[in-house]
Structure formats: C-alpha cells, structure tokens
Design brief:
The complex is a heterodimer of chains A (120) and B (183). Chain A has 120 residues and is α+β, with helices and mostly antiparallel strands. Chain A has three helices and five strands. Chain A is globular. The chains are: A alpha+beta (120), B alpha/beta (183).
Chain lengths: 120, 183
C-alpha cells in the first residue's frame, strides 16, 4: 500500500475535523516536513514545535512520567495541540477552543503510522 | 563573592561543543533536550539540542553558583537564544577551532550578541590546544582584548573546568570594575 502524501492527510484533517483549521508536521530536530494548505510557511514554526516538545519531554520527567503524549497550548483565540508522532516527528494542529479533542485525537491516531514516516 | 548566583549563557555555532561543555562541568543532572538529527546535519553529529541545556556549577566552600544555560546552535532556533539571554552575567561563546567554515558567521553572531547584552564574554575554543591560536581566533571573531580565549577539549571535564575558571575570573573582574565605577 502506498503511503498517502502527508500534505493530503493534513488537509483532510483541517477540512474534516470541525474546529481544526491548520496542521504542521515537523521533524523532532526542527525541520518542516509538511503543512496543510491553510498554514503559512514559516521555518521557525517547525523549530519552535521541536523546542516545545524537546522541553516537554523533560517536564514529563519532572512530573514523574515517562512518556509525553500531548502538549496543549491554550490561548485567547483557541488551541494548539501538539503530539509526538513516532520517535522522529511532531504534529501540531491549530484549532478553535470548541474543537472535539477526542475526535481530533482519533483522527490523528488513525493517521499516525503514515505521518510518522516509519513506512516511507 | 558569596551567596551569589550568576547566569551564564553558553552559546555558539552548531556542533561547537556547548552541550559537551555543560555535561562535562555540571555538578547536577543536566537538563538536556537532545534529539536525533536528520538530513545533512546528521552527517555532522548524531544528536542536537532543540531547546536548551541546563547545568550548574558551585564553588566548593563558597556560596557562588553558576547556572549554565546552553542554547541550540542553528539559526532556526535563534528564538531560544532570545529567550535565554535575559539577565545574563557572562556569555561563554563556544567555537570549534577546527570548524573553520563556521567562524565567519560565529563572529557576526558574537559581535551582535555582545553589542546587545553588554556583558563580558569568555571564548572557549574547542578542539584547540594552542593558546596563541585560540587568542587569534577569538580576536578574529571580534572578541575584545580583555575577553579571554581558552583553548580546550570540551569532552574532557578538566578542560571544561578551565573554561569555568575563566568565567569565574571574568565575573570577579567585572564585579571589581563595577565597584570601582560606583566608588
């Protein structure tokens, strides 16, 4: 089976999950891999995502945990939800505050194998 | 110098030895944000810092404590340097003496940083064992005459501690200058 284009996956996510309006896939060391068509290309975004996830791994240890599962940035106009995807990638989704987070997580989990790049 | 905590910004180009320095001298467990490198950078080294390194160094028999904040080296992570550079007391600028292709950009970065922060700097010239070479490189980067250059091998804790000694001497000198200005 041919792996889908990550941009198509991110566009589908942004177009089908109510409240989600953009997504960025980055490498853990801060390079941009793909983004939905709705997101402006800015190199620093991927670097910031990598830095946030890198630091969050340490915060997980501070909290006594072992695995970072999700990072939530709640701001005045919505949410930025960030997940480690496999061991080498990071996915961030921009959403409205009202997004159905459970539905969004299910979508991401369903696509995680493709997005991780492990099969490419 | 007692009961004092100083913030040291450990910065410099990609793969210069910043993380190695903090890991070699820190007396507490280092907070590290190393991840596997990808693309062309993986040909230079296997891991890279994406947010910060953090370590500490305390003088024995004294309450003086250094907080070592290490930055990522790549330009795409410059926002982390901007976050970490607040209230810095000394800049420890690490440069790989053998990576000559990084020196020109490093000089631009060093000069801009020092012009903005107006704090003393110590230039740690990694993979270098010659004081004259280290000094010459530091001056070519734009370090001032009074700013020490330390030839070092930062995978060696003893060598890393020599950089820390220079940082402490620089702090002492800076404090004395400040006192003299006040008097």
């Amino acid at each position: 089976m041919v792996a889908p284009d990550p941009v198509a996956v991110l566009d589908e996510l942004s177009n089908t999950v109510a409240g989600a309006y953009g997504a960025i896939l980055a490498s853990v060391d801060g390079f941009s891999i793909a983004r939905s068509s709705s997101v402006v290309n800015q190199a620093s975004h991927s670097a910031m995502l990598a830095a946030a996830v890198g630091l969050s791994h340490q915060l997980v240890a501070m909290g006594g945990g072992r695995e970072l599962r999700q990072l939530v940035v709640e701001h005045d106009t919505g949410l930025l939800l960030i997940w480690p995807i496999g061991s080498q990638r990071v996915l961030a989704v921009l959403t409205a505050a009202t997004v159905d987070q459970r539905h969004l997580r299910e979508f991401v989990q369903g696509q995680a194998q493709w997005l991780s790049g492990d099969d490419s | 110098m007692s009961s004092q905590t100083f913030k040291i910004l450990v910065t410099g180009p990609f793969a210069a030895g910043k993380t190695s320095m903090i890991q070699s001298v820190s007396q507490t467990q280092v907070v590290s944000t190393d991840v596997l490198t990808t693309g062309g950078e993986s040909e230079v080294k296997s891991h890279t810092t994406v947010a910060m390194d953090f370590g500490t160094y305390a003088l024995e028999g004294d309450d003086t404590r250094l907080l070592l904040f290490g930055t990522p080296g790549q330009a795409r992570f410059r926002f982390m340097t901007n976050i970490l550079k607040g209230d810095v007391d000394v800049v420890a600028f690490v440069i790989d003496g053998e990576a000559t292709d990084t020196h020109a950009a490093a000089g631009v970065e060093l000069r801009a940083l020092l012009r903005e922060l107006r704090v003393p700097a110590v230039i740690a010239v990694n993979r270098c064992s010659d004081e004259t070479v280290a000094n010459r490189l530091a001056r070519s980067l734009g370090a001032l005459d009074g700013e020490p250059a330390v030839p070092c091998q930062l995978i060696d804790p003893d060598s890393g501690r020599e950089v820390v000694v220079e940082i402490l001497l620089t702090l002492l000198s800076s404090m004395e200058s400040t006192k003299a200005e006040v008097a």
